[in-house]
Every structure is written in C-alpha cells, then in structure tokens.
Amino acid sequence: RLPLVHFGYWNETLDKWAAEGHITIEEARNWKDGNPIDAAIAEKLGFDFNWNHCFSPTTDLLPAIEERILEEFPDGSRNILNVDGVIVTQKTGATGIPHEVDHLLKGRKEWQEFFLPRLQFCEERITSVSVNAGGTEVPFHERGLDYLRRGEWDDPYGLWCGSLYGRIRNWLGMVESAYLQADDPILFDEIIQTVGDLCYRCVEKALEITGAPFDFGHLWEDICFKSGPLINPRVFREKVGRHYRRITDILNRHGIHIVSLDCDGKIDALVPVWLENGVNTMFPIEVGTWNASIKPWREKYGREFRGVGGMDKRVFAYDYAAIVDEVER
C-alpha cells in the first residue's frame, strides 16, 4: 500500500489532543519532528512516518537577526522585528500568520550590512545540527555522526536542502520582491546567487561529512497560492532553476533520486520548471479551493511526477462516512 505520512503538528492541535486525553501533556510539550514522541504519536494515529524527518543543515540567516519589540499597543498586540528582519504585528492568542508591517531588507545597503554576512557558509551549519540517534537527541559530533553513517533509522530519512526563493520572498516581502526585479536586477540576481550557493554548499558538505544514505532530499518554497505562483514563472525558470539543478545533480550522484519540494497552492505553471531541474516530488498536492489532483499531472508528465497528498483534508472535520468517501475517491 501507499505509505501514510504526516508533516508534524500544530502545537495548538497537540494541546487540544492532550486536553481531550488522547496524548499526555508531556508529549504535547516535548514533541519535535523525528523524535521518539513524534514516533509514538504517529503510531497512535496510524501514520507510518513523518515526511519532515530530515537531517537539517542551517541554511537560514546565521546568526539570526535579534528579535526585539518595536511598539506595544493598548489591546496587547505589538510590533516586533523578527529573526528574518520582518516587522510583524503579534496579537495575543493569535496562531495564524502574523500581519507584515515592514521589512528590514530594502536595498543594497541593508543587504550588505545585515543579510550578506549572515549567509556565508561555515561547517558549523552542518556540525551544530542535533541528530535523533537511537531514540535520543544527541549533538552531531557525539553519537550523531556514527548514527548517520550506519543508517540505523527504520523510516525514510531525508536531507534538508534549504529554500532557493521562498526565504528571499519572506525577507523582502511579496511586493518588494516583485519590484526588486525591475528596480535593481543586479541586486536581485546577487541575492538569488548567494542563497543558491549557500544551500548547495550545505548539501555538498552534509553529504561529504556524514556519508549518510539519505532516502530523499527536501526543499521548502511555499511559492504558490490559490490562483498561481508568487513569482513570474519565466523569472523563476531563468533565475532559480539552475540552482535546483546544481542541488539535484549532487543528490543524484550520491544515489538520492527522490527530491521533494514544499510548494503549496496552484503549482501548474511551475511544475515544468521543477521537473526539468530534477525536483520530482510535489508536496503537498493540496485539494483546497483550487481542487488540485495528482491524476492530470501524472497523465501529462508520466511516472516522473510524484506527489505527497491528494486528499481533501477538510473532510476530517466531518464524519467517518465523508472520510471513507474521500479515501475511496
């Protein structure tokens, strides 16, 4: 049968399950992707494994931008500068994506002062990662390295390969990331090149140091919404495509042929870009307001196209009959 996988849990969901007596408070508080609690909860729910169970080099800003409160309001909400250099409004009790107010990254000055120095490669990006070795989180340089080399995991285990454009869009904001392509194309290219180089170096070094038999590579972009891509597909192909190819080529040379990407939304216009650059597994195939389905893509692209998802998760809010109908579909 096909494997039944999950991608972790919202903390609010874990708290709800603990309050209802399905899991313990300790499990809710100490859950982490790939740790023993994650495996225990998955077994209770009937999942086979967590798709987010990866060895994860640090491909983000290092060090992160220091988070600080900029302004507080009478209703208890506040504007903060977060670790990505984005000013957001935090509201007490709110658990959704916060409202973006402004962005630290506005042009070359901020790029060179705050971002470029934090996007340089160093081995600490690999060796500072903790590893779940035999059910215990241990530092990479203790039992972690031996554990990786022996491949003593029971479930598929991935290698995190970073984000080639999604993080850039977050730093700049949706509007400014679009304008920068025209306002300063040289800087736009430099940012993409810097991020692409960093992600490649992290993948290259992780494969070299660990010698681990990873089962798949995984990237994150969140690059589409319900009507289509958050970037012009032509620009995406020209500017970002070759960086995917560099990463997928080195993965393939190490025997890793499943490369998945957290894409989100209506991805039709970007699927050809990913497939031609070695990314062959789309995650998630989301049956949302755009009614995505694996079937037409498999018919168009053949078996090279793979997907995680394809079920309408909204039915889980209904009754068992609705769930059975969706499974049968």
Describe the protein in words.
This protein has 329 residues and is α/β, with parallel strands linked by helices. The chain has 13 helices and 16 strands. A six-stranded parallel β-sheet has the order 3-10-11-14-15-16, with no helix packed on it. Strands 4-5-6-7 form a four-stranded antiparallel β-sheet, with helices on one face. A two-stranded parallel sheet has the order 1-2. α8 (174-183) crosses α9. The model has no long low-confidence stretch (mean pLDDT 93).
- Spatial order of the strands forming the largest sheet: 3-10-11-14-15-16
State the end-to-end CA separation: 16 Å
Low-pLDDT parts are: none
Mind telling me the C-alpha Rg? 21 Å
Count of β-strands: 16
Shape: globular
For the biggest sheet, the summary is:
6 strands, parallel
Quaternary status:
single chain
Look at the structure and give the mean pLDDT. 93
Q: Give the H and E element order.
A: EHHHEEEEEEHHEEHEHHHEEEHEHEHEH
The amount of helix comes to: 40-55%
Estimate the strand proportion. 15-25%
Pairing-aware structural class of the strands and helices? alpha/beta
Number of discrete helical segments: 13
Topology:
Elements (H helix, E strand, L loop, with lengths): L4 E2 L4 H9 L5 H6 L5 H10 L3 E2 L3 E2 L12 E5 L5 E4 L4 E5 L8 E5 L4 H8 L8 H4 L2 E4 L2 E4 H11 L7 E3 L5 H7 L1 H10 L1 H26 L5 E5 L3 E2 L2 E2 L3 H21 L5 E4 L8 H6 L4 E5 L8 H8 L4 E4 L10 H9 L1
Parallel strand pairs: 1-2, 3-10, 10-11, 11-14, 14-15, 15-16
Antiparallel strand pairs: 4-5, 5-6, 6-7, 8-9, 12-13
Helix pairs in contact: 7-8, 8-9, 9-10
Write a concise synopsis of the structure shown.
With 329 residues, the chain is α/β, with parallel strands linked by helices. 41% of the residues lie in helices and 18% in strands.
